[in-house]
Amino acid sequence: MSDGITALQVLFTETYYWITIVMMFLIHVGFCTYEVGVSRRKSHLATLLKNTMVIPTVGVSFYLFGWWFYSSMVNGPGITGGLVTAHFAEPWNELMGAHMGGKPVNPNLTPADTFLWARLNGVFFGAFLLFSWTTASIVSGSIIERVKSGAFWLIAVMLGSVTWIIDAAWGWHPAGWMVQLLGYHDAYASGVVHAIAGGTCLAVLINLGPRIGKFRSDGSPRNIPPQNVWLVCIGLFLIYTGFWGFYAACNIPIYDVQPGDGVFWSATNIYLQATTLSAITFNFIMSLCGGLMAGYIVSKADAYWTFSGGLAGVIACSAGNDLYHPIQAMLIAAVIVVIIYKLHYWQEKRFKIDDAVGAVAVHGYAGFLGVVAVGFVLWGYPASPDALLGHATPWARVTPWGQFAGAIIMFWVLGFIPGYVLSWILKQFNLLRVPREVELAGLDYHVFETMVQEDQEIQTVLKEARLAPAE
Predict the structure, then answer these.
(1) Separation of alpha carbons 202 and 432, rounded Å
(2) What is the pLDDT of residues 182-231, one digit of tens each?
């Protein structure tokens, strides 16, 4: 009976994560849609393809080395130990492909390894890969209409397959060193996904510079509104929908949280602490509502910032939405959305940062502040289930200073600094930004020029065919 129950648990978990991956794919569809809606017509195709090609570039690199980072680097740079053995995540391992869970061929694996990972490795990999695509797509929108696609793909690989997954190992793994020492709590990735992506955005934008015409001669910014607000609306609603799948993918669906008694089974958050899908549904909805209302009010009913406010509201509460009361989630979302809206326009005027979609504010600042908010609202809460994980001594608990340190690590240490270094190097070799004449003509110019030439050739052939005598 015990083996049968375990098998059902594994099969249910496999199916559960497969469904969340399908839902999360809508996030990428949404990013493609709304970025095209924001960009001007002369760069629509380049914007779409730039973000679409995140799928193969980050997908392949994540398979080759990104997935291994999550389980092997939980101890950080020698802070609590060295690298952790994670044979199941090595790209050449038999468990990184089709496997029915029988006796392993690899001598480093046990039958217990193949029983568990044969069915769960691919769906866990897929869920984390979708998180990786999300981090890269966040950067994609902010730099539209002037970045070279190749440069963006290099940045996407760095963020999606290196820096993001390392921060997940540090602060989003039940045994991560930030959880152990800082009491870091970030259940649905305010910092782990969004703050690091926002920090990378800011760094790249500094080196990339503003779009031509964004700022007047006196330095004041011009508003470049979305070119298709309907596509923007549809895209952001698709992201909302995919975000529900994102939340579900951050949970273990069924787990014995009181091992040994066989009585208390529950869903857990990413740290294996008990929560429920009911609780996170309440909080997701209320944080979305708080963000939408605040965005609508503070922007004076600007459509783009109303929709973006809803997204920022969810991001602002994601770090603690496994434990918040729904009214707390609504209020935290509303307050942070007002703050990040003001910060977006302050950084634009003060530092001449041209963030085309407000990604630094919506993802970076909202994620940073959301992580910090947890330190005060959940002060003293256990960062991990000590009894369940068998710690020799209890690990750190949630504190304001631990969360603030975690936010700094996510936004600045792993987000801004690597993003700045890579984009600066690309800039030195003239690989970061398209030439001025290409930007003026539009990134799609060469495509449309070819299409026009071919169309003219076809029209000539048709004209000659009409004039030619019938045989």
Answers:
(1) 15
(2) 999 999 999 999 999 999 999 999 999 999 999 999 999 999 989 899 99
Position 148 in a domain: yes
Q: Name the amino acid, one letter, at 46.
A: A
Rounded to whole angstroms, the Cα distance separating 130 from 153 reads 16
Tell me the residue range of the domain where 138 lies: 2-448
pTM: 0.94
Query: Nearest 5°: CA angle at 257, between 66 and 400?
Result: 65
Q: How far apart are CA 193 and CA 40, in angstroms?
A: 28
Taking each continuous run of H as one helix and of E as one strand, the counts in the chain are 20, 3
Q: With contact defined as beta carbons under 8 Å apart, do 401 and 375 qualify?
A: yes
The total domain count for the chain is 1
Q: Which of 192, 164, 376, 377 is CA-nearest to residue 270?
A: 192
CATH of the domain at 146: 1.10.3430.10
Q: Count CA atoms closer than 13 A to 99's CA, side-chain side.
A: 25
Whole-angstrom CA distances from 70 to 90, 169, 235 are 11, 5, 30
Q: Does the residue 469 lie in any domain? A: no
- Encode 333-344: b = buried (16+ Cβ within 10 Å), e = exposed: bbbbbbbbbebb
